[in-house]
C-alpha cells in the first residue's frame, strides 16, 4: 500500500544522546539501543471514520521517535499497518449502505492527507490487512502445527484461537491482572464469553467465513484474519523476530499488544518481541476521551480547512507530554499559534550560537520525549534577543517536525 510523501528533513550535525523511552512492560524509562537500523512497528488505523486529533497525537509522538533516531544516525525500518478488514469497518459500511472497500479507501486517503499536512515522516512499509492475508494464513498454519493454536469446540464455526499459555510470558507486556485483562478483552473486540475456548482470554486468529462477510480462500478454511495476528505477521515478516519499539495508543496495551507479542513469540521462539512497548495517551474533548462512540471528535482536516496552520496543530499536540491523557481545545491551538509565531520571528535572527539551549532542548527530547520542557527551552531562546536563529530552527525542524522558516 502506498504511504504518503516524505517531508524534507534538515541534517542535525551534533551527536545526540541515547533516546530514553518509557516501556510499559517494565514500567520504567530506559534507553533505546537500536543497532545501525532501528526497527519500529506502530499500529495503524482501522479506516472506518475520519482520523481525529487523537490519532494525530499518537502518530506525531512516534514521528518524534523516528526523527530522533534518524538524526542520531540510524537507518529506521518503520512499519505501520492499516486494519482494512475488521468488524467496526464492516459494521459501519453496512450501516451506511456502502462497500467496505470504498469506505476504507476513502478514509485511508484522508489519513494520508492529514499525515502529509502534519509533516509526519512516512513508514518504510505501509501494509494493509487485506494485502497481508496470505501472511496471516501462513502464520496461523505454523501456530496450529506447533500446538500454539487450536480450533474452538464449535460444530458450526470451528474458528482458530491462540492458546495464551504457549509462551509462558502472557501478561508481561501490559502487566495487568486477570480481572483487568478480562474486562478489557470484552470492551476491546475480544470474546471472553465465547464457549469452547481453552482459556477465556484466548484471542481469535482466524475467523471462518460467515454469510455476508468478506473472506479469503485458505488451506485452514475460507475466512478472515483476527486483529492481533495481522500485526504480528506484518511485523515479523518485515522487521524480524525482535524489534526495538512496538507502539500505539494506550488503548492498545491490552489485548492488542499483549496478544500480538504473544503470537510473534510463539511463532519465532524469541522473547521479548519488543525492547520497548510505548504508548501514547488519549486526547480528550469537553472533559472526555475523544472517541467515535461518544462523537466528541476534532478532525485535522476540518481544522486545516478552517485555516489552522498544521505546524500550530503539531505544536499544540506537543505542548503536553505524549503519555498523558490531555485535553484538546481551540484555546490550546490559539496559544500554539502564538508560540509558533514568536519562534518563527526568532528563527530569522542573527546572533550568538545557542549552544547551551540546543543541548538542553535535545536532552529534554532524549528524556522520554519531554516536549513540554523542550518547548519551554524554545520559548526562552525566542525571548533572548541575543541568540541566533538558523541553527536552532534546523534542529527544531529535524527533531520536532515544526518548520520555522
Ligand atoms: Zn496492531
Characterize this entry briefly.
The protein is an alpha/beta fold. Helix 4 packs across helix 6, helix 6 crosses helix 7 and helix 10 packs across helix 12.
Contiguous low-pLDDT stretches (5 residues minimum) are: none
**What separation lies between the terminal Cα atoms?**
32 Å
Q: What's the overall geometry?
A: globular
Indicate the structural class.
Answer: alpha/beta
How many DSSP E strands?
Answer: 14
| SSE string, helices as H and strands as E | EEEHEHHEHEEHEEHEHEEEHHEHHHH
Ligand species: zinc ion
**Can you give the helix content as a percent range?**
40-55%
Largest sheet, in brief, is:
5 strands, parallel
Return Rg in Å: 22 Å
Give average pLDDT, whole number: 96
For the biggest β-sheet, the strand order reads 5-4-3-10-11
**Percent strand:** 15-25%
Number of helices: 13
Give a structural overview.
The chain has 405 residues and is an alpha/beta fold. It is 42% helix and 15% strand. It is built from 13 helices and 14 strands. Strands 5-4-3-10-11 form a 5-stranded parallel sheet, with helices on both faces. Helix 9 (310-318) packs across helix 10 and helix 11 runs antiparallel to helix 12. The model has no long low-confidence stretch (mean pLDDT 96). Zinc ion is lined by residues 43, 81, 231, 256, 260. Residues 43, 81, 231, 256, 260 line the site of zinc ion.
